[in-house]
Design brief:
Number of helices: 14
Order of helices and strands: EHHEHEHEHEHEHEEHHHEEHEHHEH
Largest sheet: 7 strands, mixed
Oligomer: single chain
Number of strands: 12
Shape: globular
Bound molecules: 4'-deoxy-4'-aminopyridoxal-5'-phosphate
Radius of gyration: 22 Å
Strand order of the largest sheet: 2-8-7-6-5-3-4
Length: about 375
């Protein structure tokens, strides 16, 4: 990033913006006074930006004409729209969903995951069988934000459809890291978040099958086909549109990123057999590593990294500042201690080999210091 001494390894939290995105933001800002609902020429100009962005969603996420594209304030709102705007359905969600699904679902039936972080299809089938007389909505995160574990979504959607259920996926973490092709996935609804793939925060998308009846959760002036009241954030949407165009470039770099991520894990595993990488044997996002260090709380680890100018995360960013054991790790059968003593390293396009070395050194230093202080405190007993 800008500061050469600083290492940013928190790409799953948010991503830096590209030159292309920066240019589009400045361009739209300089046009000024753009409200797509206005009937005059400036309004038309704004509508064109909106239409181009919608076309780019269709093009880069492979969305057919039987689907609708609605802009929201982010993935949180898109997920809320799914869980609250579709009425009268049994909610079936995985145990490792993002809080925006967990907290907006109603009396949800939970699909467990195995120790590798992959959902149990047999359990899903059992739930689907139990509620087959009802209308059912299955929502499974495409790749988990903490572990990076990717779910077998095609199979999940197929199974859901076999039982007449509809299927939603939160693909917020996937765009720009792995291919996201809505047509191929066969899901009925899909959530995106712009700032996870080079756009800016405060902008997201819900794509859904036109046959579905969805009621708005934010009512107002009828924007976004009545599904999302409020003047569209045209600057953020233009940034999202530009970021979508960067996807092929991002995808072309994922192999290099994976090599660096694997190198990080390899070096830590060589250093001590006490380290644990969650979901290591699963199909994972190429940039994500959720790492356990015995006996050192995740906030202590985070501070140690921060003092060394390295940004990492304690799983999902929590704005309350409260550090709680990761529900994702607990669902995978990790102990409370493991869930409290793990950090997420998520790298990206600007990460270099020397950054990985520094991250490894920083981790190993803390591990050693903790060992020494444990030994000293035991010898004082
Ligand atoms: N879903 C997932 C999987 C996420 O990682 C995030 C962001 N941490 C969200 C939803 C929320 O996205 P937004 O910040 O756009 O509301």
């Amino acid at each position: 990033m800008e500061n050469n001494d600083h290492i940013y390894a928190d790409y799953n939290s948010t991503t830096p913006i590209s030159e292309n995105v920066k240019k589009s933001i400045i361009e739209v800002l300089s046009k000024q006074a753009l409200n797509p609902s206005s009937l005059h020429k400036k309004g038309q100009e704004a509508r064109k930006i909106l239409q181009d962005a919608r076309d780019n969603v269709r093009r880069f996420i492979v969305v057919q004409n039987d689907k609708e594209v609605v802009f929201t304030s982010g993935a949180t709102e898109a997920n809320n729209l799914v869980m609250k705007g579709i009425k009268g359905y049994q909610h079936i969600i995985s145990a490792i969903e993002h809080p925006s699904i967990i907290n907006s679902a109603c009396n949800a039936h939970i699909i467990p995951v195995n120790q590798d972080g992959v959902i149990n299809l047999i359990e899903l089938e059992k739930i689907l069988t139990k509620f087959k007389e009802d209308r059912m909505l299955v929502s499974v995160i495409m790749a988990n934000n903490e572990t990076g574990v990717i779910q077998p979504l095609k199979e999940i959607a197929e199974l859901a459809h076999k039982f007449g259920a509809i299927c939603h996926t939160d693909a917020a973490q996937c765009v720009g890291k792995i291919e996201v092709n809505m047509e191929d996935l066969k899901v009925d609804l899909l959530t995106l978040s712009a700032h996870k793939f080079g756009g800016i925060a405060g902008s997201g998308v819900l794509i859904f099958d036109k046959k579905l009846a969805i009621e708005p959760i934010i009512t107002g002036g009828g924007q976004e086909k009545g599904l999302r009241g409020g003047t569209e954030n045209i600057v953020a949407i233009a940034a999202l549109s530009a970021a979508l165009q960067d996807i092929p470039d991002l995808i072309s770099k994922t192999n290099e990123i994976k090599v660096l991520r694997d190198q990080l894990e390899h070096e830590l595993l060589n250093f001590t057999n006490e380290v644990k990488i969650f979901g290591q044997s699963s199909n994972r996002l190429p940039n994500t590593s959720f790492i356990y260090m015995p006996g050192v709380k995740s906030d202590v680890q985070l501070m140690h990294f921060d003092l060394n100018n390295i940004a990492v995360s304690i799983g999902s960013a929590c704005s309350s500042g409260k550090v709680e054991p990761s529900h994702v790790l607990l669902a995978m059968g990790a102990t409370k201690e493991q869930a409290e003593c793990s950090i997420r390293v998520s790298i990206g396009t600007k990460t270099k080999e020397q950054d990985i070395k520094k991250i490894v050194n920083c981790w190993c230093d803390l591990y050693r210091t903790n060992k020494v202080s444990n030994t000293l405190s035991i010898s004082h007993l």
